[in-house]
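Figure S4 source data
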Amino acid sequence: MNKKILVTGALGQIGSELVLTLRRKWGEQQVIASDIRMPPGAGSFADGFAYVDCTNLNQLRDVVRKHDIGAIYHLAALLSAVAEEKPHVAWQVNMDGLYQVLEVAREYGCAVFFPSSIGVFGPGTPRRNTPQDTLLRPTTMYGVTKVAGELLCDYYWSRFGVDTRGVRFPGLISHGAPPGGGTTDYAVEMFHSAVQHRRYRCFLRGDSRLDMMYMPDAIKAVVTLMATPVEKLVHRNAFNVTALNFTPEELAAEIRRHIPDFEVEYRVDPVRQAIADTWPESMDDRVARAEWGWQPDYDLATLTQDMLDHLSNHSTDRTTPI
C-alpha cells in the first residue's frame, strides 16, 4: 500500500481495535487514527492521531491531503439508544458525517468502508433468517440513518465510482472498549459485571433473541471485505454478517459455567426493548459467505472463555454500573 488509511471514530468500540489490527498489517505509520476526542495519555494512539470532526469538510480534506489517504474507514456515529435520545444530533453526525466523507473520497480517490447495522430492519422485515435483500423500514433514527447511509454509498459507487463497501453488523461484544450506547450493549455490561460484582441488572427481557458477534470476528469481517477484489462483489454496502445467536438468559447461563454464583436481575428499559423487538432474531449471511468468504471464528463458548480470561486478567475502570 502506497497510500495511508484514515480511521474516523477511532476511539470507539470498533475503531480502537481496528486501528491496532490495521497497523499490525500495514505498519504503524500507514494508519491515521482520528476522533473528536483526544486520546488519553501517551498510549498507542498518541502517535499518528488527528483531531477530526467528520461533519467538517475542511478538516477532512486537510487530513486526507496532509497524509495522502487512500482509504477511509468511517466509524464515527451515534449508536441506537443514544440516537433515540438525540435524534437531531444523530442525523447530523451519522448522515452529514458520511456525506462529507464520501465527498472527500470522491475528490481524492479514496475507498470507503461504512458499517451498517441490523438497525436497518424494522417490524415488517422477516424476523428469522432475515435475507440479504428484504424490506428496510426501521422505526428508529439510528436505523433511518443506516438505511440512508447504505443508499448513499451505493449512489457514490454507481454515480462517481467511489469504492464503497460495508456490512450490517449485529450486536458487537468487546473487552477492549466500554459500551457506546447500543441496544445490544447488555452483553458487554454483563461480562464486566459478572467479573467485578457477580451480579447484573439487564435492561432487556431475558428471552430477547438477537444475533451477536465477538469483536475479533468483526475486525476480521472488515479487513476481509476491504481486501476482496472488486470484481467478486455484487452487494457492496450492505452485507449481512453474523456469528452468534443467543438471549440474555442463555448468555448468563454460559457465564455461570465459569462463575456459578453469578446473578441476573431483569429490569426492562422500554426504549431499548422496543428497539430490540423490531430487529431480527437471526440474519441470513450466505451472500457474504459466497461473495467474499465470510466465516466467523468464535462461538458462544469460546467467546465467553476469552472475554472472562481478558477481564479477569486486566482490571478496568470502564465498567457500566449495575
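Figure S5 source data
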Amino acid sequence: MTKDMLGRKESITVEEAVRRMSGGLPDKEPCVETVGIDDALHRICAREIKAAHDLPHFPRSTVDGYAVRSGDTFSAAETMPAYLGLSEEILMGREADFVLKKGFASKIPTGGMLPGGADSVVMFEHVQTVDDTMVEIMKPVGPGENVVQRGEDIKAGETVLDKGHRMRPQDIGACAGMGVTRIDIYKRPVVSIISTGDEIVEAGATPAFGQVRDINSYVLKGMITESGGDAVRKGIFRDSYDDLRGAIAGSIKDSAMVLISGGTSVGTKDMVAGIISDLGNPGVLFHGVSLKPGKPLIGGVIDGVPVFGLPGHPAAVSICFQIFIRPLLGRLCGVAERFPQYRHMVVKAKVSRNISSPQGREEHIRVIIEEREDGLWAIPGMSKSGLISTLVKADGTFIIPMHSNGIEKGGVVEVRLF
C-alpha cells in the first residue's frame, strides 16, 4: 500500500470516499411516526398521500361577477350588450341549489358555487345594472371562463404527495384542503456529536491558556437540525482510548449516525480510526481524502451505523458535512428529492483575483459575494480553516477541481451559497 510522507495511506478522491460510504450502509427504511400537519413542516412523508375526494368538490367562481350560461353572452359587445334577467343571488359558503335558466344571470362572489346550468362567470367590470331585474353583459365569456371546475385542482384518488417528499408550506396547505390533518412521516434520525481533545472546554467556560472553547459541536448541531436530523451533543471527552471507545460505543447503540470532532490528525493522540475498526464491521472505509480543507477525514461504518471522524477546524468540518454527511443524512431521513444537488442556491460569479491550487486535491474556496455594475464577483477569503470568522463572513464556496492548477482573475465559477 502506497503511503504519504507521514506514513499514512495515500488519500482517496472525494468521489471514491462518497462511494465507499454509500455502499457501506445497509438498505434500511427509517422508523415511522404519525404527526399533525401543524408539526409536519420539513418532515419526510413515509407514505404517499392520495386525495379522498375532488378538490374543489363543486365548481367555483374565481372572480366577483355574474354566473351565466356562456351561450347567452356570445354576441355581447359594448355597443350591443346582451340583456339577461337577474336570478337569485349566490351567497358565499352556501349551496347554489337551483338551476340557472337560459337568459338569466346570478350575482356570485369569488369562491361562490356555480348553480346548475351555469358554466362561466362574467366579471363585474363587464356588466351594467339596468334595474333590479336585468343586467347588460358588455363582453362575451367562453365555457369555463373564470371558473374552477370540480376536481380541477386535485382529483379523487390522485397521488398528491409521494413517499420521501419533504413537506413544504404549500404541501401542508394541500393536506388541509383535502381534510388530511395527520400524516405518517419518518422519524428524525438521531445523530450523536462527540467532541474530543484535552484542550477543548465548554462554550460557557473561561478557557485557560492553551485551551479553546468548543465550536464544532454547535456548528454540527445546527447543520444536522437544518438537514432534518435530531442532533445530540454527547459532550467533550479526553484524548483517552478508553474514554473515546466508551463514548463511541454508547452512541452507536442509540444513534443513526455518529460524528466525532477532533482526533483525526497524525500524532500520538490519533486513536479514532483504531476505535472505529475495533468496535464493529466493516470499520474504517477510508482515512484521508484529497480535499482542502478536510484532508484528515475518517469515514467508517460500525454494524450499519455510519461514523465520521472530522477534522478539528470549523471550515473543514463545514465542507466535510456538505459533501459527505448531508447526503447520507438525507438517506437516513428517508428523503427522495428529485434534484438534491439544487437544494442550495448556486450563482455564477467572477473571481476577484488569481488563485493557485496544487494538483491532486479538490479545494473548496470560501468567498464573499459582491455585486458590481458588471455582475457578481466572488471575493476569496484565504484565511486559515481554523478560523470560524471565515465561515461567518463567507456567503458560499466554489470548487477548484483536483486536476486544476487554480483559476485566473475574472474566471467564472459556480458559488454554492450557504
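Residues 1-7 have pLDDT under 50 and may be disordered. The chain has four domains: 14-27+188-340, 32-55+165-186, 60-148, 344-417.
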